[in-house]
Amino acid sequence: MQVNKVHHVQTITRVAQLLGEDEDWLWDIAAEMDQEGGSIWVYSLGEETVMAFTDFGIETLTDLVQSHKDNPRLLKRWTAPE
Length: 82
Known about the structure:
By secondary structure, this protein is α+β, with helices and mostly antiparallel strands. The protein has three helices and three strands. The N and C termini lie far apart (about 55 Å).
């Protein structure tokens, strides 16, 4: 029997602050992650949800951030035509 050993998570807002990164940019990068990578969704009342990360998820996200810094073309943001 597997027992869930996650006892805390940190929201994407907090992780952005801890890493010194832009939260919107982290959202774009974290969209590549799934629950096996340590990303989870926390649901509140109504429609409110927030992305959060386990400790492993923060490690995974940190690796993804470094990959995107090493190769900025991995994540192309949409920009409005001029």
